[in-house]
Amino acid sequence: MAGDILSQSEIDALLSAISTGEMDADELKKEESSKRVKVYDFKRALRFSKDQIRSLTRIHDNFARLLTTYFSAQLRTYIQITVGSVDQLPYEEFIRSIPKMTVLNVFEVQPLEGRVLMEVNPNIAYAMMDRVMGGLGSSVNKIENLTEIETKIISSIFEKSLDSYQEAWESLVEIEPMMSEFEVNPQFLQMVSPNETVVVISLNIQVGETSGMINLCIPHVVLEPIIPKLSVHYWMQSDRKEPKPNEIDALKKQIHLAELSVSAELGSSNISIQDFLQLQIGDVIQLESTIDQPLVVKIGDKPKFTGQPGKTNKKIAVQIIDHLVRGEEDGE
């Protein structure tokens, strides 16, 4: 059996059986390979790659940090929020995994279709409400008997946290989260079909002395339009930020102040190395251009204009008479 440790006598008996032909090594290999076959459940089809799950984890890591800052300011107590896990599973399985009575915040994420569900452990919700109302943050689980005022306070706490959710996604897509429904019984909530794949992000949260979970349930239909953006390739491209208008203006100003060398070339000629080594003062080199041809004016080391020599204020000068057309290089 797999996982069992064979004794020396059992090993000797196995080798003896193979050598005598009582057992076939090829049959053993086939049997072993057949054991590796796994049953695939089409009701629990994996529709997100590991790469896309990592991207969602990255987004919600940022959301957890933003949420920690927000709740710390609102509740004025110790808050710690971290991403516990990111999984994909059927919606029906997620609903069965959460308590029968809990805090369910449903919100839309326009312009994306569908809705997102935020399930909050009742102990956490009551601890937060107690802090908002001036208490020490003690927790009492009486979720089935929520008053109208308590419902309003709890829903308001998490509705304001949606600004942090919008900020967490802004590097990938612009969304406008808006609370649409508050519920305490998951049986009365049917966002998608039972077999629809959803991504569940579980956040571990500590509010003072109380700890619990916040689960975010995102249906596949919500993420479907932006699935290509969840790849690493997109993240690497998005990390390159476009310069702002004021940065562009400052860059143009610096470029305008940059100095360039300008030279006018009278002409050129080819000579041998032997002739070059024998040059003496007073020797004359005949240029290939004639006296009536325009000079080539170079900017840096690139020919850009044609000009004619002359004088201005008793100084040698060159007058630009035309652009030097050089095909595609003319635009440089």
UniProtKB/TrEMBL annotation:
Q: How does it sit in the membrane?
A: Peripheral membrane protein
Start and end residues of each Flagellar motor switch protein FliN-like C-terminal domain: 254-323
Fetch the InterPro entries from UniProt.
CheC-like_sf, Flag_FliM, FliN-like_C, SpoA-like_sf
Q: Does the keyword rRNA-binding apply?
A: no
Keywords attached to this entry: Bacterial flagellum, Cell membrane, Cell projection, Chemotaxis, Cilium, Flagellar rotation, Flagellum, Membrane
The GO cellular component terms are: bacterial-type flagellum basal body; plasma membrane
A Gene Ontology biological process noted in the UniProt record is: bacterial-type flagellum-dependent swarming motility
Is Ribosomal protein among the key words of this record?
no
Kindly list the places in or outside the cell where this protein is found, as annotated in its UniProt entry. Cell membrane; Bacterial flagellum basal body
Protein name as annotated: Flagellar motor switch protein FliM
Q: Which GO terms describe its molecular function?
A: cytoskeletal motor activity
A Pfam family matched in the record: FliMN_C
By sequence similarity, the record places it as follows: Belongs to the FliM family.
Top-level taxon of origin: Bacteria
User: What function does the entry list?
Assistant: One of the proteins that forms a switch complex that is proposed to be located at the base of the basal body. This complex interacts with chemotaxis proteins (such as CheY) in addition to contacting components of the motor that determine the direction of flagellar rotation.
